[in-house]
Design goal:
Layout (H helix, E strand, L loop, with lengths): L7 H4 L6 H6 L20 H7 L4 H5 L2 H15 L4 E2 L6 H6 L3 E4 L3 E4 L6 H5 L10 H14 L4 E6 L1 H10 L7 H9 L1 H24 L4 E6 L7 H17 L8 E5 L16 E3 L6 H7 L5 E5 L8 H15 L5 E5 L9 H15 L11
Helix pairs in contact: 5-8, 8-11, 9-10, 9-11, 10-11, 11-12, 14-15
């Protein structure tokens, strides 16, 4: 299957967008910018809309999910929207008991820790992704020429939530399962890859112009463990998009030791967290477009500090074949939204083709 003739990348709405051009490694009119977690608690309009309601219910209401996705595009003028959802949405739709606890994150009713638990995991019916497809289609229609980015959780990150039963600082139980029962661990990651892959594909088929896989907990693994136990499952998640010609991004935290491996397992663009300077990352993956990597901690500093940091990130990003400015993780909820708006304006101004600070958009 290929993209529909009415898909924004096919009918021309987003095919020439700055984000898409940069993701494909081409020169863009300016360095595109968007922020992970740009839709959410930092926005007063989001807090007013949600008003303490259930997170997963909001994700599965197409009108609500679409409106939340659009809010930061209207406010900040970012170069892309990212679909408002959660990596456990396909887990819930498959029939697993999971909820999002405010202040904590995804929590499983019963953790998945034994071979029997893994064998009993239900398969996701693609028909159950209808609310996701509806929300994406609504959003794409409203966005026009602004691309929408699909997203899903990487298999190890998703598996970590299932095994730990919720968020964990060190993913100790998940890592222990990998060592104690490699066969069960492999089966679990296979299920996660199928589930996340179906979620990702549904968003792209419905109109998303790019796709990002989040590997939040990959940094807890050694390089060898990620390469031998996890990488092939990450590749299977990206492979769910086979036949759909959209740019793909792999972002994880603490992934400095494995950056050079990421392009070999489905990533067309490498996302970089705040720990690795972009010029160092460019040497690790020469010729690859990079995304990142403003330190979220800087967002609370005085504007001159923020401005200097953003300009430094842009300068280092020039070492890459193309650069999309983003954070090295997500927007902290206490961030002043006006700061994000100023960053977007700054990046567009100083990287515009012909700007006095540089010869081109990189």
């Amino acid at each position: 299957m290929t993209l529909s003739p009415t898909h924004p990348l096919v009918d021309g709405r987003t095919s020439d967008a700055a984000l898409v051009r940069a993701y494909r490694g081409s020169l863009a009119p300016h360095v595109p910018v968007w922020f992970m977690r740009q839709a959410g608690r930092s926005l007063p309009e989001y807090r007013e809309l949600r008003a303490g309601g259930d997170m997963l219910a909001a994700c599965l209401d197409p009108a609500t999910a679409s409106e939340i996705t659009l809010q930061p595009v209207r406010r900040h003028g970012v170069d892309a929207a990212i679909f408002f959802s959660d990596i456990v949405v396909p887990v819930l739709l498959a029939g697993v008991d999971v909820r999002i606890v405010p202040g904590r994150g995804p929590v499983l009713g019963t953790p998945v820790r034994t071979p029997r638990d893994i064998a009993d995991l239900p398969e996701l019916d693609p028909a159950d992704l209808a609310p996701v497809r509806d929300a994406v289609a609504r959003t794409v229609e409203a966005l026009g020429a602004t691309p929408l980015i699909a997203f899903a959780g990487a298999p190890f990150t998703l598996a970590s939530y299932l095994v730990e039963g919720g968020p964990s600082k060190d993913q100790l139980r998940a890592r222990a399962l990998a060592v104690a029962d490699p066969e069960a661990f492999d089966a679990l990651l296979s299920w996660c890859a199928r589930t996340s892959g179906a979620f990702l594909r549904a968003q792209v088929e419905a109109g998303a112009s790019a796709a990002q896989v989040f590997d939040s907990w990959a940094g807890s693994l050694s390089r060898e463990s990620w390469r031998t136990r996890v990488a092939r499952h990450t590749a299977r998640t990206f492979a769910a998009l086979d036949g759909l010609d959209v740019p793909t991004v792999h972002f994880g935290t603490g992934t400095g030791p494995i950056l050079d491996l990421l392009p070999h397992y489905g990533a067309g663009v490498v996302g970089v967290d705040w720990r690795t300077p972009l010029d160092d990352a460019a040497r690790a993956v020469p010729g690859w477009p990079l995304q990142g990597n403003v330190d979220p901690a800087v967002l609370g500093a005085p504007w001159p500090v923020i401005e200097a940091h953003v300009l430094d990130v842009l300068e280092r990003g020039r070492a890459a074949s193309a650069h999309v400015l983003n954070l090295g993780h997500g927007v902290p909820p206490e961030t002043d939204p006006d700061v994000l708006t100023r960053i977007v304006a700054l990046v567009h101004e100083v990287t515009a083709t012909g700007a006095s600070t540089g010869e081109d958009a990189r």
